[in-house]
């Protein structure tokens, strides 16, 4: 199994990050089997395109939400890495769990 899971659509709220915002998130190494993809379909022409990131970010984007890491952008780069027998990928990870306001702890009565 390449990925932890495959699903259709984002289970997390819209984060509103622009390309410029993503560029400020430092990439880190992530195991492919820790990622859940949010796209079910793969385009073979994009998978085989050598210049697919020519105008975009070199690093895939993932969102950490409720303890899970979702691959938001970069599915084709991740599959290419797997086909090259690599188990990790450098990914920009936005941790929405850290950005979410903390709920105050309930006090015992």
UniProtKB/TrEMBL annotation:
<protein>
    <submittedName>
        <fullName>Type II toxin-antitoxin system VapB family antitoxin</fullName>
    </submittedName>
</protein>
<dbReference type="Pfam" id="PF23719">
    <property type="entry name" value="VapB"/>
</dbReference>
<dbReference type="InterPro" id="IPR014447">
    <property type="entry name" value="VapB-like_prob"/>
</dbReference>
